[in-house]
Design a protein that fits this description.
Blueprint: E1 12-16, E2 21-24, E3 48-51, E4 56-60
Antiparallel strand pairs: 1-4, 2-3
């Protein structure tokens, strides 16, 4: 099984728009972090879809070890 690669040890603050769908990179290989660019193609990992309920800033996980994907849950503080 392929393991995700931590993209960074901090979350990504992103301004999102209500109703818009975002695809969070779960593998850590995307060049467009925190979003998927298809780099997971040769892995067993797949992106996670997130639909914004309201407009505003949210925090996407950067370490790829969160228990609440795609959102940061502070796991990076324990790595």
């Amino acid at each position: 099984m392929d393991a995700p690669i931590p993209a960074q040890k901090a979350p990504y603050g992103v301004a999102v728009e209500a109703g818009k769908r975002y695809f969070w990179c779960a593998c850590g290989r995307s060049k467009g972090q925190p979003f998927c660019d298809g780099s997971h193609k040769d892995t067993a990992l797949t992106p996670v879809m997130y639909t914004a309920e309201k407009s505003g800033e949210v925090w996407f996980c950067g370490c790829k070890a969160t228990g609440k994907s795609p959102m940061c849950d502070g796991t990076h503080n324990r790595l």
